[in-house]
Amino acid sequence: MRILVALLLSFLSLGAKAHDFNLLRKNLAIAPNNKKVCYTMLEALEQKENNNKEIGYLGAYTMIKANHQISPIQKLSSFRNGKKLLEKAIDAAPTDIELRYIRYAIQISIPSFLGYKDNLNEDKAFLQEKYRNASAPLQADIITLVKLKASKI
Length: 153
Fold this sequence. Notes:
8 helices, mainly alpha, globular, single chain
């Protein structure tokens, strides 16, 4: 609990221009199983004037929010709204490696019946080709997610 509070405080204490995308990215893995983290990240992102990357994260957390809802109608609505936000962000910044990372992470994690798997191969190839242009923490996350072999590093 203390770790969660510390993470949340560090996120909320960020200045308007300083964004901790590492925390947002790390919490993507926690949010599907932790309602509090999911809703805290959503609340923080909803209170900002979002750039494309933040819109992408808002979309991802909105999709993840579906895990924490009971009604199938609410679940589907959250998923669709989040998908629209993420796709809007990627349409505005198609070469942003972090947005492609977010979409790939979502698409490999969700059930096939949701019909959101169209970009898996495209995003995986993009990440494999461009990951060296990312920050060191994002590079490490991409390597783990895409399971790049050491020989490609």
